[in-house]
Design brief:
Shape of chain A: elongated
Strand order of the largest sheet of chain A: 2-3-1-4
Strand content of chain A: 5-15%
Radius of gyration of chain B: 39 Å
Oligomer: heterodimer
Number of strands of chain B: 15
Keywords (chain B): Cell membrane, Membrane, Protein transport, Translocation, Transmembrane, Transmembrane helix, Transport
Number of helices of chain B: 20
Largest sheet of chain A: 4 strands, antiparallel
Structural class of chain A: alpha+beta
Family (chain B): Belongs to the SecD/SecF family. SecD subfamily.
Number of helices of chain A: 13
Largest interface: A-B, 103 and 94 residues
InterPro entries (chain B): Acrflvin-R, SecD, SecD/SecF_arch_bac, SecD_1st, SecD_SecF_C, SecD_SecF_C_bact, SecDF_P1_head
Distance between the termini of chain A: 55 Å
Shape of chain B: elongated
Number of strands of chain A: 4
Helix content of chain A: 55-70%
Organism (chain B): Occultella gossypii
Subunit structure (chain B): Forms a complex with SecF. Part of the essential Sec protein translocation apparatus which comprises SecA, SecYEG and auxiliary proteins SecDF. Other proteins may also be involved.
Chain lengths: 366, 683
């Protein structure tokens, strides 16, 4: 634990540093790989639509002592032999039977048969009907909301950070999170229900939330970056990521713990249902949101920012100066590492450093 | 940065403010439980409480887009039906401006569900008979058992001119000047109930009205059993005395206004209809447009026998309300509702008004037509002239002019009738109460486990500071609970399962604010600030970050709330609520708590377990200071601090700071080589 604190301190001071921005090609490759994997998962396994998207009838038998799915299959076969029911257990003593759309008469008949088969009063068998457009309606609304949200949030972030590059990088990270979450969710094979759509939507907020925290530090570190020549924009951004790394880890652990507990309770105690679907979507999404805020968002921001001729010129200038100084140092006999140590930490901002140059000088004539 | 003096006052004041805030929230809930119908536990939505939920999409026949006014009118109609059918606590809301969600507790009967699903139609029918809303009073019928003098049985062959309209105040014509202008017809209005006495029978065609037939006795003076009433009604309506209620008009009706439409059965139904009973105000579109109809006013103040449909609501192209503009262009103070008919509708309306405005009908008071929406009469104005222009204007009666709201409501209803809406059932869901309870219990269990894990992790990470985290979470949790209880009382908010999930997720997001703040304090200490200064400076920076990130979260919640449908809304609501409360708690609780804690010995002097001990905060680790040099912790103390420390260690040989001496002066210039200095600092 002390080591973790020390770890944080070292990251902050730049003594220990992960070259996250420098290895951006690797992270981008991993990110693209994940996106392709997600595409494949969706393509091969397919999205498993919930009843809200398929449409159909759903029966819930509660309070049965013998939740054997076969009984439900048998009951359905008596009513409509062509259909295959999807049967899943819900909680400890309930069972959920989903069929294609049944007529009112069939619905009543099946409800009675189910009550008989599971030995419960007919009142404990509830039936629902979901039109096929209901889930699509929820989703189209959600997509509409998504687009409006993205436009608004891009504006807000561009205004807050005063840089389009940050807003765009955050959006790229967000899309990555969303695609990966949907892909892995389909990979697990849970049904996509409105509850999981809620989970995906929450990822929007959470992913950006996480990114904003990191970018806030990037913004702070790179303020006045052009006024000095000790480190490049990329290095300052990298330092910011390292400095917020402990925060990112702590936040994701704290955020994931409750979600993991819902997922655990939902998957093992409750069976299929709202909680499990939301929790799985959130768990994947929050994990990748944290990762992407570190590995995708900031490096992407740096890439975008490097396109600015001013930043590019500054980077070239800093690197050039550094080469010269390394060369000078090597002549004196120092190693390059010693000279480059300064680049690991935040550079000096005029007026802030405490070295000799900051001390009042006596005017002496030489 | 706050001066020490200021910060000595501020945290307590802020905490008091928060305490007052919490007291207000819980105080209002407490007051609500005592004097109103609030409860300490929030209302639960159907997925937790059990019940039936229907989601309906209103659709017009021609696929026109549906306006929000039409949706709210449709909701009003469904609500009237459901309320009148006696289902308590039905919740009918619009979702995303398009769908209508009807949530019924328990397992409602099939009839109730049908009521909800039925579409609503508007029809214009001529008025044949109007009466007070109550059932027939047998006393009156006793007095007139002879069909010939029966005040309420209409002899179809009776000469309509023999009727005496003057006795009916309801048909009093409004004396609007004839709007013989080009565009506007005038319809004298009638929206007032015919009588204040609900039991007063006042058939307008009453030819032989006598004072005795206007009973002045109170309705409770004599009470009759239902059987007696039924028998009296039977006797009164069985015109030919054969004991069978015929449903065939005695003669072939010549027009929609012909009294011949009133059959024995219809008369009987009319006598028996009790519009004071809410069950009869259910409405519904079951009426046959080709047959006459017995119906109630939608507010239950009158009942009517109406002729067959003359005009469908779809013939209205638009209706609007506004102040009346006279011919000369001056605006009066009277509110009117203007109706614009389609060209075909205008022609039909012209024909209808021509007939209604005929002297015979004007004379017997049946020069009125009723606008029937969803089987209930919303307005029954009288007509004094033919209206050929396809534009009509309804004004209030002189005795009872329209208020602005009434005029607007009527215009909305007419517009609704203009585009009859059918409801497409999107989903119909029954949730068993036991299953909902199980989900809620398990969900809360999951929340509890999550909370404990968060507490354990923050103890591990932040030691003593975990107290602040836990206390903040407790404050945030109780505030959220209080606000939800308050909203569920004031706004009828209901907590749904996605809402619970939102609350559990919020634990993590709320805790993150504290993490950002704590990490910032550490950062500031690493930069070389003293603890109390770091608490302030860290706060300034953390506040910025917390505000920005919470703003993003809030934006997401607001957009989702207003655009999304179904469970997404409940989730977005709790997400937004917890984000706001997170801000409140961080500003009003966590920050002042930190200010207070740094003044205690345990935290302020950095006890090993406080989470603020120097090593934990990085004070023992050399910080980089630029130019390839690192500062040792020694360098970071002010001279005064070092002297005091020396004095203390001399006195007690116990020092909170690691006893490590560096030869460097503060801000010294010695050109020690980087790597060595750094390692020194670590060991």
């Amino acid at each position: 634990m002390m080591n973790f604190a020390k770890f944080g301190n070292e990251l902050y001071s730049g003594k220990r540093s992960f070259d996250i921005v420098g290895n951006r090609r690797r992270w981008f490759a991993i990110g693209i790989g994940l996106i392709i994997l997600s595409g494949l998962l969706v393509g091969i396994r397919g999205i498993n639509p919930g009843i809200e998207f398929r449409g159909g009838s759903e029966f819930t038998v509660s309070g049965t002592s013998n939740p054997d799915p076969q009984l439900a299959h048998d009951a359905l076969a008596e009513v409509n032999s062509e259909q295959v029911a999807r049967v899943s257990t819900v909680g400890s003593s309930a069972i959920r039977v989903q069929t294609e759309e049944l007529t009112d008469a069939e619905t009543g008949e099946l409800a009675d048969l189910l009550a008989e088969a599971y030995d419960v009063p007919t009142g404990d068998v509830t039936s629902s009907f979901v039109g096929p457009s209901w889930g699509a309606d929820v989703t189209s609304k959600a997509v509409q909301g998504l687009v409006i949200f993205l436009v608004l949030v891009t504006l807000v972030m561009a205004l807050y950070f005063r840089r389009w590059s940050m807003a765009i990088a955050a959006l790229i990270a967000l899309l990555h999170d969303l695609i990966v979450t949907i892909g892995l969710y389909s990979g697990v094979g849970f049904e996509v229900t409105p509850a999981s759509v809620i989970g995906f939507l929450t990822i929007l907020g959470y992913s950006l939330y996480d990114t904003v925290v990191v970018f806030d530090k990037v913004r702070e570190n790179t303020e006045g970056v052009l006024d000095q020549t000790r480190y490049t924009y990329a290095e300052a951004a990298n330092l910011a990521v390292n400095q917020t790394l402990v925060r990112s880890i702590n936040t994701s652990v704290v955020g994931l713990l409750p979600v993991a507990s819902i997922l655990f309770v939902g998957a093992f105690l409750l069976g299929a249902g709202t909680l499990r679907d939301i929790a799985l979507a959130l768990f994947i999404g929050m994990l990748f949101s944290t990762l992407s805020s570190v590995f995708i968002a900031t490096p992407m921001e740096v890439v975008l920012r490097q396109r600015d001729p001013k930043i590019a010129a500054h980077t070239a200038k800093v690197l050039d100066l550094r080469d010269r100084r390394v060369a000078e140092a090597e002549e004196v006999g120092l190693t390059a590492d010693e000279v480059l140590a300064e680049a690991r930490a935040g550079g000096l901002v005029a007026g802030r450093h405490l070295g000799q140059g900051a001390q009042p000088r006596r005017k002496t004539k030489r | 940065m706050a001066t020490p003096k200021k910060s000595a006052v501020r945290p307590l004041r802020t905490l008091t403010f928060l305490a007052v805030l919490i007291a207000i929230v819980f105080g209002s809930v407490a007051a609500g439980t005592k004097w109103s119908d609030a409860t300490w536990t929030p209302n639960l939505a159907l997925d937790l409480e059990g019940g039936t939920q229907l989601i309906l999409t209103p659709k017009t026949e021609d696929g026109d887009p549906i306006t929000s006014e039409q949706v709210s009118e449709a909701i009003r109609i469904i609500r009237q039906r459901v309320d009148a059918s006696g289902v308590a606590e039905a919740e009918i809301t619009s979702q995303g401006g398009q769908n209508i969600v009807v949530a019924l507790p328990g397992t409602p009967s099939e009839e109730t569900l049908d009521l909800v699903r039925r579409s609503a139609q508007m029809r214009f029918r001529p008025l044949l008979v109007e009466a007070g809303p109550g059932q027939i009073d047998p006393a009156q019928l006793e007095a007139a058992t002879d069909p010939a003098t029966d005040p309420t049985v209409v002899d179809p062959s009776a000469d309509p001119t023999a009727t005496d309209p003057a006795t009916d105040p309801a048909t009093e014509e409004t004396t609007e000047p004839a709007a013989d202008g080009v565009v506007r017809g005038t319809v004298g209005a009638e929206t007032t109930p015919p009588s204040d006495d609900p039991t007063t029978e006042q058939p307008i065609e009453d030819a032989t009205e006598e004072p005795s037939e206007e009973p002045t006795e109170e309705p409770t003076a004599t009470t009759y059993t239902p059987e007696e009433i039924e028998a009296a009604a039977m006797a009164a309506s069985d015109a030919n005395g054969d004991g069978v209620l015929s449903n065939e008009p005695a003669t072939e009706p010549t027009s929609a206004s012909d009294q011949a439409w009133i059959t024995e059965q219809l008369t009987y139904d009319f006598y028996m209809l009790d519009c004071t009973d809410p069950a009869n105000l259910v409405g519904g579109g079951a009426d046959d447009p080709d047959l006459p109809l017995v119906s109630c006013a939608d507010d239950g103040t009158a009942k009517y026998i109406l002729g067959p449909m003359e005009l469908a609501g779809t013939e209205i192209s638009s209706a609007s309300s506004g102040l009346q503009v006279t011919e000369s262009g001056t605006v009066t103070n009277d509110y009117v509702v203007s109706i614009q008919f389609t060209s075909a509708g205008g022609e039909t309306f012209a024909a209808v008004t021509e007939r209604l405005a005929s002297p015979e009908l004007q004379a017997n008071g049946t020069n009125r037509f009723a606008m029937v929406l969803d089987g209930l009469v919303i307005s029954a104005p009288s007509v004094t002239e033919q209206i050929p222009s396809g534009e009509a204007q309804i004004s209030g009666s002189t005795a009872n002019p329209f208020t602005r709201d009434e005029a607007t409501a009527l215009a909305n209803q007419l517009n609704f009738g203009a585009l009859p809406i059918t409801f497409e059932v999107q989903s119909e869901e029954q949730i068993s109460a036991t299953l909902g309870t199980e989900q809620l219990e398990r969900g809360l269990l999951a929340g509890l486990i999550g909370l404990i894990l968060v507490v354990v992790y923050s103890l591990f990470q932040y030691r003593g500071l975990a107290i602040v985290t836990v206390a903040s979470l407790v404050v945030a949790g109780s505030l959220v609970y209080g606000v939800i209880a308050l909203l569920s009382w004031v706004q009828g908010y209901r907590l749904s399962l996605p809402g619970v999930a939102g609350l559990i997720v919020a634990i993590g997001i709320t805790a993150d604010s504290f993490i950002v703040y704590f990490e910032r304090i550490r950062d500031e200490v690493r930069e070389g600030r003293r603890l109390d200064a770091a608490v302030e400076e860290g706060w300034k920076r953390a506040r910025r970050t917390i505000l920005a990130s919470d703003a993003v979260n809030l934006l997401a919640a607001v957009v989702l709330y207003f655009l999304a449908v179904g469970g997404v809304r409940g989730f977005a609501f709790t997400l937004g609520l917890t984000t706001i409360i997170d801000l409140v708690v961080v500003v009003l609780f966590t920050h002042p708590m930190m200010q207070l804690l740094t003044r205690t010995k345990f935290f302020g002097e950095g006890h090993r377990l406080s989470g603020l001990d120097p090593e934990h905060l990085g004070a023992s680790v050399s910080a980089y200071k630029g130019r390839g040099r690192f500062r040792s912790p020694e360098e970071r103390l002010t001279i005064a601090e070092r002297r005091r420390r020396d004095a203390e260690s001399a006195a007690s040989a116990e020092s909170p700071e690691p006893a490590e001496d560096s030869p460097d002066d503060p801000g010294g210039e010695s050109e020690s080589v980087t790597s060595t200095s750094a390692k020194d600092g670590e060991k």
